[in-house]
Amino acid sequence: MIHLGQLNILEILRETPPGLFLGDEEGNEILLPNKYVPKSFEIGEKLTVFAYLDSHERPVTTTLKPYTKVNEFALLRVTAVSDYGAFLDWGLEKDLFVPFKEQAREMQEGKWYVVYCYLDAETNRLVASSKTNKFLSNEELTVEKFDEVELMVSRFTELGVEMIVNQKHKGLVYNDEIFRELKLGEKLKGIVKKIREDHKIDLSLQQIGYKNIEPSAQKVLDALQRNGGHLPLHDKSDPEDVKRHLQMSKKSFKKAIGSLYKNKQIIINSDGIELK
Length: 276
Prior knowledge:
Blueprint: E1 7-16, E2 19-23, E3 29-33, E4 46-53, E5 59-62, E6 72-81, E7 85-89, E8 96-99, E9 112-119, E10 126-129, E11 148-156, E12 160-165, E13 169-174, E14 187-195, E15 201-204, H1 213-226, E16 230-231, H2 239-246, H3 250-262, E17 266-269, E18 272-275
Parallel strand pairs: 13-15
Antiparallel strand pairs: 1-2, 1-4, 2-3, 4-5, 6-7, 6-9, 7-8, 9-10, 11-12, 11-14, 12-13, 14-15, 16-18, 17-18
Helix pairs in contact: 1-3
């Protein structure tokens, strides 16, 4: 079966004036227009292509790689707004359409939005929605405490930063546990810190407990080496100074220097720490 909105590996069946016809093992065929035909090819060769609907709503393929695929979240820029909705640049010749009813707030040309791409069952068209919450669910969680997860920054709130977790769930990193600037749509790894009774997910951008000691210790060592073997930080330093120098919490810093001191890698002085 040829899947719209996804990458497909298809066989070159024949060459025609409009382009190459590609097919799958079930006998389905689809066009690869001339503009995307490789300079050299052989009948029977297989190509990886993306299937979508062209400007005439005909199924076609392209060798271009889109910025997102069906059933995925992405940060995309609005290229135009019409009487029917907004259009997003997703790396293909034909922009991705967002109907007005699928806009969490009215979209503006030139601005960036986190959206979800899906196949509309009524029209069989690939469309996007900025109403991301309706495509996320925490009812049946597929993650557990201490799991490492893939995150995407989706919204900034007074409490912290909301994250899309593994393209399935919604979680939150609290402001007092964020030690660097985060950007809308940014993708990063995190840890499930806590799962509440109502299935809300608390996240951490640092390893938790003993797992945090080793990477934090290495971060301190790297900073020492960059600064000539000395840092003006110690276990009595202000938490904001630690955050500014190392982008970590005071608690993680104390664990890290405790580990380094125990391993005789640093000296702790009244004015800071030094490489031994």
